[in-house]
Specification:
alpha/beta, Amidase signature (AS) enzymes, two-stranded antiparallel ribbon, 2 domains, 17 helices
């Protein structure tokens, strides 16, 4: 009894203290003779390096619903062709032009890629002191790629709408010869000799990489080894979410577009906070080779842009099967520019922004009240089990070697991954079975072509990522900040909403967002980083704190 008691107490942490004393006494011998040698052998083979860049799991998540739709051959989207666009007199105005507009200026040789690259590199350096959104300006490769883009155009070779367009990458995405820091002081000098798949896709489309942008440390929230990224619309706030740099830089006109990632809110939260349009695509749409991994069944890459049209252009360039990413596939998307939205039935939740509902209804969309019904009441817990255990498998050596002790925010990954260490494999798999039940219930409840609803509600963030469904974040307005300084301020709080579609129906969300933005101008507004007013100062420490990620579960 005395020998078994400590073990029985330990088993309570696993909700497994049901064994008899005689059975408990057998456990140490069995674990030492069988379990531990296997643990160590596996770790030696696949876990000696951090970040999950190699040896992906054979357990591959498939987000497809299998709705008996006939797949069609993937074709490039039919982008609109603008006309009568000229180079504005002020570089500030050029900084907030769309990718489509900038692409037209380059195609018609009204501006060179080298000049455009110079303008945006200048803005990155000018505003980064305030926003703390840039890790590295990739100046050398930027001018090399811009020069090549101009040379090709002089030779009559045009690669498409991204030809010569500058952009930034979240700093979990590997680019040779440049540091890929993962936002962490532990890895801040890390150089990975590999080209991420998404970087290859953009390079082949003629885009020009000008910066590695801030990721929260190990892709968690907005705290990184160099500081904490601020929201251009309100410098008293942090940008929140680990794709902080891509969101803030796009919002501030420091880049025309940027690539971020999401596992659980890392795109939706910063896009909403910084007032930019972004799409979290269907899981598996964009290959992730060369990208730091949190969870192989949750991680997604997507663009932050000026508008939904640009999102469609970027997604079209980066989608497709990555041969080294088992989860990626050739997802059969229709052309969002050819969707007849008057044939769509779109639901709206109780928390939807009604302006979006009214605008889409006026455009001929059949808008109906809607509610997603599902019985799974542990959605947030399933997300955390999945994300944290997967993350720990990719950073096992990091935790074992005590590197978590110098992590930038001790109440984030260090705390969560210690908890993950005592999640039994059997209960991790039970969580995946519950996830499967959730997916089936969402599929059966999804009786509309798309729905409009709050994009930062934590339950929806968890549900959407577990299901793998796409959502586009759309700016819908502004409201006054709380506790404005005496004398007034131009700082604002952005209002956004989400347009959700079933997996592999990203084109529907894009088409609806483009329709909404065709008659509104919220997405065209510029944050007041150049005109803060006499009462606005840049604080050393922004005063508005963002609460930590919540974990709610019904028991």
């Amino acid at each position: 009894m005395s020998e078994a008691l400590p073990l029985k107490s330990a088993l309570q942490l696993f909700d497994a203290d049901f064994f008899s004393n005689s059975k408990v006494k057998e456990l140490p011998k069995d674990a030492k003779e069988f379990n531990i040698p296997v643990f160590r052998a596996n770790r030696k083979m696949v876990a000696s390096e951090n970040g999950g860049l190699h040896n992906p799991s054979v357990l591959v998540f498939n987000s497809e619903w299998g709705m008996n739709e006939v797949p069609h051959k993937n074709k490039k989207f039919s982008y609109p062709s603008p006309s009568d666009i000229n180079v504005p007199e002020k570089e500030e105005d050029m900084a907030f032009m769309s990718v489509i507009e900038l692409g037209y200026l380059i195609k018609t040789k009204k501006i060179t890629s080298q000049k455009l690259t110079e303008i945006f590199l200048h803005r990155l350096k000018r505003y980064n002191h305030t926003l703390e959104a840039v890790v590295t300006c990739t100046e050398d490769v930027a001018y090399t790629q811009a020069k090549e883009a101009d040379k090709l155009l002089d030779q009559g070779v045009y690669l498409g709408p991204l030809h010569g367009i500058p952009y930034g990458l979240k700093d979990i995405i590997s680019v040779p010869q440049y540091k890929t820091t993962w936002g962490s002081k532990t890895f801040q000098n890390q150089v990975l000799d590999m080209e991420a798949w998404v970087y290859k896709r953009l390079k082949s489309a003629g885009a020009v990489l000008i910066a590695k942008l801030v990721t929260g440390s190990l892709a968690y929230d907005d705290i990184w080894f160099g500081g904490r990224t601020r929201n251009p619309w309100n410098i008293e706030e942090f940008s929140t979410g680990s794709s902080a740099g891509p969101a803030a830089s796009t919002s501030a006109g420091m880049v025309p577009f940027a690539i971020g990632s999401e596992t659980a809110g890392s795109m939706t939260y910063p896009a909403a906070r910084c007032g930019v349009t972004a799409i979290r695509p269907t899981f598996g749409t964009v290959g992730r080779t060369g990208v730091m991994s949190i969870s192989e069944s949750l991680d997604k890459l997507g663009p932050f842009c000026r508008n939904a049209m640009d999102c469609a252009v970027i997604l079209d360039a980066i989608r497709g099967r990555d041969p080294d990413d088992p989860s990626s596939k050739e997802i059969s998307l229709e052309d969002p520019f050819l969707i007849d939205i008057t044939k769509l039935t779109v639901g709206y939740l109780e928390d939807a922004e009604m302006e979006v509902v009214d605008v889409l209804a006026a455009k001929g969309v059949n808008m109906v009240p809607f509610k997603l019904n599902y019985t799974v009441d542990s959605v947030q817990g399933i997300l955390n089990f999945t994300m944290d255990v997967d993350m720990l498998s990719h950073f096992d050596e990091w935790q074992r070697s005590g590197q978590d002790d110098v992590y930038e925010a001790q109440d984030q990954w260090p705390l969560e991954l210690r908890r993950a260490r005592i999640i039994p494999a059997v209960d991790y798999l039970q969580a995946q079975r519950a996830r499967g039940k959730l997916i089936r219930e969402i599929r059966d409840s999804f009786t509309v072509d798309a729905f409009v609803g709050n994009v930062t509600d934590w339950e929806k963030v968890c549900m959407g990522n577990l299901v793998g469904m796409p959502v586009i974040i759309v700016p819908t307005g502004f409201k006054n900040i709380t506790k404005p300084p005496p004398g007034g301020t131009r700082r604002r709080t952005t209002i956004t909403t989400g347009i959700y579609a079933p997996p592999q129906h990203d084109h529907i969300a894009l088409a609806l967002a483009m329709a909404y933005q065709s008659v509104t101008d919220h997405h065209k507004q510029r944050p007041p980083i150049d005109d803060l007013g006499p009462n606005d100062t840049v604080p050393n420490h922004p005063s508005v704190n963002i609460p930590p990620r919540q974990w709610h579960i019904h028991v």
